[in-house]
Amino acid sequence: MSDRPVVTRFAPSPTGALHIGGARTALFNWLYARGRGGKFLLRIEDTDKTRSTPENRQAILDGLTWLGLDWDGEPTSQAANAARHSDVAHEMLAKGAAYKCFATQDEIEAFREQAREAKTSTLYRSPWRDVADADHPDLPYVVRLKAPREGATTLHDAVQGDVTWQNDQLDDMILLRSDGTPVYMLAVVVDDHDMGVTHIIRGDDHLANAFRQNLIYDAMGWDKPVLAHIPLIFGPDGKKLSKRHGATGAAEYQAMGYPAAGMRNYLTRLGWSHGDDEFFTDEQARAWFDLDGIGKSPSRFDFKKLDNICGQHIAAATDAALLHELENFLAATGATPLDDTRRDRMSRGMYCLKERAKTFPELIDKAHFLLADRPIVPDEKSARNLDDVSRGILKELTPQLQNASWNRETLEAAVADLAEGHGMTLGKLAGPLRAALAGRAATPSVFDMMLVLGRDETLARLKDAAG
Fold first, then answer.
1. What residues does 101 pair with on adjacent strands?
2. Beta strands in 91-225 (DSSP E)
3. Cα separation of 284 and 279, whole Å?
4. How confident is the model at residue 239 (pLDDT cuts 50, 70, 90)?
5. pLDDT over 70 at 1, yes or no
6. What's CA 31's distance to the chain center, in Å?
7. What is the pLDDT of residues 308-330, one digit of tens each?
8. What does pLDDT average to over the chain?
9. Where are the alpha helices (DSSP H) in 119-202?
10. Residue 139 to residues 104, 127, 129, 183, 208: CA-CA distances in angstroms?
11. Helix 446-466 crosses helix 408-421 at what angle (to 10 degrees)?
12. Pairing between strand 161-166 and 174-176?
């Protein structure tokens, strides 16, 4: 196994949007493969025809794309491989590793009812397990796997360690239904084998399935992949993450305006650690990520930590990359796109917007001064700074800025001189300037706003406010 190139897979069911837990599973698979020059494959487990829809499939692809988790090759469909799954079941029949069971649903239910009354195991034991083909009736049947009934099976898991299951707790699971269609449990193993998957990284709610799937590997004599069952994500209250805790779908976090790099960082750190590192780049994550860094206990989703990490990623991003992702966010949420003027201002102003924004809506809120149209209408708080005296001072300032060099040093000097001439501090004059330039009391520095808006727009706003 160690000599084979790493191949991981993410295998979601298109029965709903991409859950944040599924997104983390995909991320772990992606990191493990990408950090080792391997392949990350995507398989859509669409055997549930009633719940698998094209819209759900697209939602999963969109969620992975937003998170930046690129997969190798085309996504495969599990349902499309049904004939291959059936062939394997018949191979197991021929080997004697499986058998035909003619028991009816009524007979199975009667067996279980008797077991419940006798307080014995309700695990169905088929009377057809060892019946010769010559004695088979001409009736519908299912194909069942022959599970061992004595002893124990121990599987090594890269996260959970050695896990043991008593064989008498394994049922002779159905491989093919009476209509000849394969079950999910068989399909998963055949697909993983055929796709050359070397490492199965998935939620620990699949750990019990691993023992049943292991029997198929044994029956077929196939190489077994490395297993890594990762603990689930809990909410802050220690219960399984659900809608009562807030958003659970990747698309919801995209719509809330979290940056993809911040989500990747936070989800990577959720249940995995590299020393005390909290903030890291994709490059570092790919280099550091390993299965032995995954903890055995469920992790708790913490929105404050998510905000903190995302804020650091916004601050660290290049202005161009941030503007590009901001425009994608506007498009994804159906918001008005930036026109050329606003795009240019955002590009020039990003340096003074991104330091304390944790999400794109916060970034847009901080950018209000450069996105708003004239005339700027002050909100109630900032309007209090525009009394008659302040308006008169702004009127004085306008001609002084008309021919000034448009750089921070000159602008600061002009405003400071004016404030001093009126016996005011620079901070006292900043209030009316914020009201005139942004219509708000909380803004980036007035000089940053002037530089970003440019001479003409700044003077126009000051004239509007001065009246």
1. 142
2. 98-101, 142-145, 152-157, 161-166, 174-176, 199-203
3. 10
4. confident
5. no
6. 13
7. 999 999 999 999 999 999 999 99
8. 95
9. 184-194
10. 10, 15, 16, 20, 32
11. 50
12. unpaired
| Residues 261-274 pLDDT 10s | 999 999 999 999 99
Name the amino acid, one letter, at 364.
I
Residue 53: Cβ within 10 Å count: 14
pLDDT band of 2, cuts 50, 70, 90: low
**For residues 104 and 110, what is the distance between their CA atoms, to the nearest angstrom?**
10
Alpha-carbon distance of 232 to 160, in angstroms, equals 13
Over its C-alpha atoms, the chain yields an Rg (Å, rounded) of 31
Give the tokens for residue 234.
């809990």
For the chain, percent of residues with pLDDT exceeding 70: 99
Residue 243 falls in the annotated catalytic set: yes
Helices (H), 354-402: 360-366, 368-371, 380-383, 388-402
Assess whether pLDDT exceeds 90 at residue 52: no
User: 240-255: per-residue pLDDT in tens?
Assistant: 887 777 678 899 999 9
CA angle 73, 264, 231 (to 5 degrees): 90
Query: What is the SS3 assignment for 157?
Result: strand
Burial of 94 (0-12, 13-18, 19+ CB in 10 A): exposed
CA-CA-CA-CA torsion sign (247, 250, 256, 258): positive
Residue type, 235: G
Mean pLDDT calculated for residue range 424-442: 94
Query: What pLDDT digit, counting tens, does each position of 102-145 carry?
Result: 999 999 999 999 999 999 999 999 999 999 999 999 999 999 99
pTM score, whole prediction: 0.93
Which of 119, 243, 296, 305 is an active site residue? 243
Q: Alpha-carbon torsion 24, 29, 34, 40, what sign?
A: negative
Give the pLDDT confidence score for residue 51 in this predicted structure.
81
Q: Do 201 and 230 meet the contact criterion of CB atoms below 8 Å apart?
A: yes
Integer CA distances (angstroms), 268 to 243, 261, 265, 295, in order? 21, 11, 5, 12
CB atoms within 10 A of CB 277: 12
Residue 242, pLDDT score: 75
Which residue stretches of 35-130 are H helix? 54-67, 82-95, 105-118
> Cis ω on the peptide bond leading into residue 12 (within 30° of 0)?
no
